[in-house]
Amino acid sequence: MRTFRQRRARLLAVAAGAVLGATALTGCSDSGELRAEAAGTSPGSGGSLGGSGETSKPRPPRPHDVPLNADAGRGGGAVVAAGGPGAPYNYGPSAMADGPTTRMWWCSQYPSAMPAGDDILYGESPKVDGPFTAPGGGPPVAVLSGNPGQFDGMHTCDPSVLRVDGTYYLYYTGAAGDHALGNSVGLATSADGITWTRANGGKPILNPAHDVHRDNNYGSGQPSVVYLGGWFYLMFTDTTGRAAGWNGAGQFLLRSKDPAFASGVEALGEKGFAAAATTSAQRTRSLVDAFSADLMWVEALDAFVIAHETSGGTTLTFWDRDFTANPFRPVTVPGAWQEGPGLVRAPDGHAPLSQADPCGRVPFDVVRATVIGGANAPTDLRHFGIDVHGVRACTDPGRTLAVLDGFAMPSPDRTMDLVIAGRVLRVDRRSVAERLATTLGPRRLPVLDGLPVAARLGGQAPAVRTPDGRTGFVLADGTLWRVRPGSVAEVNGSPVETVTDERWRSYPAGASLGR
Length: 515
What we know:
The chain is mainly β.
């Protein structure tokens, strides 16, 4: 096999060595319910925030090291996704819960996709249990391959995909060939998640720091990105980072309001986030001792979660918003694994909502490779999951609106109520609410009854559209609520008026609607 693949095999081997001695983090109560056990000292807790972080506000006391209850174990059955004929391996998935469809990108190789190296494949399915196919059916398609002559000239792998304001961002590992420290992180953008254009002039957005050179010469890669509060949070592996383990394991974190991380970069260190001159600034703090991990924001817990592999399965390690403390004890999604869990996330990298109990229950679903295949590389992607329950997320109006963002449910007058951007929007047509919501609840939640309705989207409400296709509803109070996709205006039966950019900008802005 290629030396690049051998280097990845060595990375996996040292990862396995690191977790063989780990204690399983889940046990069972007498009822058979999964339950988190004490995790000992909190991993890598830092000090107070420094640098140019977000404006500080008085906050209530935060939880610390609180045990979580877990149940509803699921998955582990059939393979859910694989490349077509000739694809020897499948691993490193990025899974997006996008309304009624689960979309997934992962690392494989097609003999027909040139050059001969790692490719990123795409498939979709109405459910996370698959099977994942190309749009319309058939084998998954290769959507990003090597770019000869550039840093990713032979290999593109380890995707992490977000959608923010209608644009897809694909962060990935790229390598030009089979040489030491050859891996860096690249970025591509897309309007549909299938046809991609490389950003930053085709150059990497993150290179190895070269703080320390170890036997593990992988370099930097395996990115995972979350969008929260206007910031892009980028977690990644760098085997040359100062704070990495003896074997190169470790997860480092940068953030920026620029998706390409070309400006305003802050690096997480021992004293919190601080301004960094470049994305190759010294790696002084690792969040978890792992390779190939995934990051997600969980609004119901007011915490980040890092999914990483340990001896018992995929362990979920929780950090508060500032990465200063571990608010909850880890829990584990048990089952077979070989590489890289991909958390099933909303388009912005947040946790999907529970349909039945979004205020009290959080589903955690992962897709991961489960065997080493004939090519001596990870394959057989399978789905595993648990629910964390007993969460008291909707304790006040502000928290309720934050937790339920994107959730639609029946209203008292046989319409639908959609929670969006801290407001309740009453939508007359269910078919429209279905297209605007990230999660559709089967029944009304009593917690919403005391909250005021901010605006109403009636059937046939007037809409406007610019020459470049931006579309929005003009509501009764004169505010403009942009909607994606613009075709929702036609579903609503709205008369659509073409307006100039100047006219578009003249409307007071409402919230952005749609997925």
